[in-house]
Amino acid sequence: MSVGTKRMPTLDTHANDNNPQQATVDAETLLGMHFEPLEYIIPNYVVEGLTVLGGKPKMGKSWWAYDAAIAVATGGKAMGTIPCQQGDVIYLALEDNLRRVADRIRTLTPLRKKLGLDLKRLKIRVDAPRIDNGLLTELDKWRESCVNPRLVIIDVYMKVRAPRKRGEDVYAADYAAVVPLQQYAAKNHIAIVLVTHTRKMEAEDPLESISGTNGVTGAADAVLVLSRNSTATVLYGRGRDIEEIETAMKFDAGRWMIIGDAAEVKQSYERRKILRILRESISPLAPKDIAEQSGLKPGNVRTLLGKMMKAGEITKPEPSLSLYCTPITPVTPITPSEV
């Protein structure tokens, strides 16, 4: 291209292309452009671009990632529920050795031979260069050898992170370290899942729990956090192209399975707790008493009691009093003819 020649965006420009020559465009031209729909690798959870997956050590992040890799490589179901379009996957198991990887895959695919599962589209590496020292070149080699490259899993981030320069701003360093992966994923329309750890200290916002500064999560397109609370293990997600999600999970035989929406599961758990307290009580209880015995917030207890009354799970012996108990099952008398 000669100096001074303008190059305008074409009508087939993709929404996530990171092309510096397309940095400025007028709004009318933008609205006339055609954007290919985003590819959802694991619908509602992982979309093309960079996703950071965080969790505490030994939380089961790798098991979740292996399950996702197998689901995509075989066109199966992630988390036992989510159908995935089949495609090529590369898993960089940088904290494992080949023996351990084989053991994990066997655990997750106990019926592989019986079901005829073909895992050739899942490639494994247990070593890889850093992001700043050849990783993207290696990913290019894999991508160009594939029929339909869809998913890259890097487990774990610290193994490929570029070292911070002396005196470099911490946030800027974290952001700059992750950006090449985000740009690579967007340019090539694939998903990269970057596995990392969360801090020891709890955070009100799950995204704040990711190890490092906000530079890591700021550069990512989406963030998933696997954490445990008093009622269940929860997979929380938020991103530019996914709806905010909070899914209750169950770990069974090496596989994370979806139980349901975390809020509904928590409420179900709290309702069962209230029912147990009322069944064990010899007299009706007030909301304050139920809150003290259950450890639940008084406001939550009052809300749940109202819902449980409507559902017929509990009752008030005296309608004018705020005292609750479980319904008394009437005893049907036995007639002489039934004796």
Number of helices: 10
**CATH C-level name of the largest domain:** Alpha Beta
What about the largest sheet? 9 strands, mixed
Order of helices and strands: HEEEHEEEHHEHEHEHEEEEHHH
The Cα radius of gyration reads 26 Å
Unreliable segments of 5+ consecutive residues: 1-16
Shape: elongated
Query: What is the strand tally?
Result: 13
The CATH homologous superfamily name of the largest domain equals P-loop containing nucleotide triphosphate hydrolases
| Strands in their spatial order, largest beta sheet | 7-6-8-9-3-10-11-12-13
Q: Name the beta content range.
A: 15-25%
Q: Mean pLDDT, nearest integer?
A: 87
The N- and C-terminal alpha carbons lie at a distance of 101 Å
What is the name of the CATH topology of the largest domain?
Answer: Rossmann fold
Helix/strand class: alpha/beta
Q: What's the structural domain tally? A: 2
- Mind telling me which CATH architecture of the largest domain this is? 3-Layer(aba) Sandwich
Specify the helix fraction band. Answer: 25-40%
Outline of the structure:
The protein has 339 residues and is α/β, with parallel strands linked by helices. 32% of the residues lie in helices and 20% in strands.
Verbal overview:
This protein has helices at 27-31, 61-74, 98-108, 112-115, 135-144, 170-188, 214-219, 262-280, 287-294, 298-310; strands spanning 40-42, 46-47, 49-55, 77-78, 82-83, 88-93, 122-125, 149-155, 191-197, 222-228, 233-239, 245-252, 255-261. It is of the alpha/beta class and 339 residues long. It has two domains: 40-243, P-loop containing nucleotide triphosphate hydrolases (Rossmann fold); 263-328, Winged helix-like DNA-binding domain superfamily/Winged helix DNA-binding domain (Arc Repressor Mutant, subunit A), CATH 1.10.10. A nine-stranded mixed sheet has the order 7-6-8-9-3-10-11-12-13, sandwiched between helices. It is elongated and about 75 Å long. This is RecA-family ATPase.
